[in-house]
Structures are given as C-alpha cells and as structure tokens.
Amino acid sequence: MRIIITSIAFFFAAAAPVFAHAHLDRASPSVGSTVIPAPREVVLWFTNQLEPAFSSIEVRDEKGASVQTGKAVVDRSNRTRMSVSLKALPPGSYKVMWRVLSVDTHRTQGDFSFRVGP
Fold first, then answer.
1. Would you say the pTM of this structure is higher than 0.85?
2. Which residue from 80, 105, 64, 68 is spatially nearest to 24, judged by alpha carbons?
3. Among 116, 115, 112, CA closest to 24
4. Distance (Å, rounded) from C-alpha 92 to C-alpha 61?
C-alpha cells in the first residue's frame, strides 16, 4: 500500500509542470495602478517560461493608438519575464494586451489597464 501511495504522489509531483500554463504573475506598472512619472517600459512576469517567437505585448492609449516603440522581448536569463519599451506617455489611461505561448505549448492571453497622472 505504501508503494502505491508513493507512486501516486510521485506521478502528481512529476506531472505538475505539465499542467502549468503561463498566467500573468505580476506586472510593472501594476494592474489597475496610477503611476507618476510615466513608465518607460511595461514588464510582465508569468508563472511559466515563454516561447519568445510566439509571445507579444501591445500597449494602446485611450484612442486605440499603439504606444510601444518596438516588439516585446522575452528575457534570455529569465524566460518568465517579458517587456516592451514605450514612447513618452502623456497623462491618460493605457491598455496592456498580452498573448503568450508557454513552453508547455499552451496559449494564454489577457489584458489590463493602468493610468499615468495624478
């Protein structure tokens, strides 16, 4: 009986990473925050490593115009971290939209807003 319980526990411990999709862990600027001064980049951290070629961030202003200066980059030394540089942001609301493919081959996506100004 002890061998069966140990085997089952080992199976679930070994299988846990297989079921772990990349979900947003935290962000800078923080989800729903108001920031002063305006950020120069958006940085997102995920719960699983990302596939750089299939992961992206878009940042748009209140009118829907893109405000990032290039493509998102997945950090080579920490593949759970992805960032994108921003243009100079005037006060206002901004929407961050992300789409990622994790190393477990599952896609996830989401969005959140932040505000620049008082």
1. no
2. 80
3. 112
4. 7
Please give the biggest Cα pair distance in the chain: 65
Pairing of strands 107-116, 56-60: unpaired
The torsion angle over the Cα atoms of residues 92, 89, 36 and 113, rounded to 10 degrees, is: 50
Per DSSP (E only), the strands in 7-106 are 24-28, 34-35, 41-46, 56-60, 73-74, 81-85, 92-101
Q: What is the mean pLDDT of residues 38-45?
A: 98
What residue ranges define each of the domains in the chain, with the CATH number in brackets? 21-116 (2.60.40.1220)
What is the Cα–Cα distance from 46 to 64, expressed in whole angstroms? 25
Which of 65, 68, 103, 102 has its CA nearest to residue 85?
Answer: 68
Confidence label for 6 from pLDDT (cuts 50, 70 and 90): very low
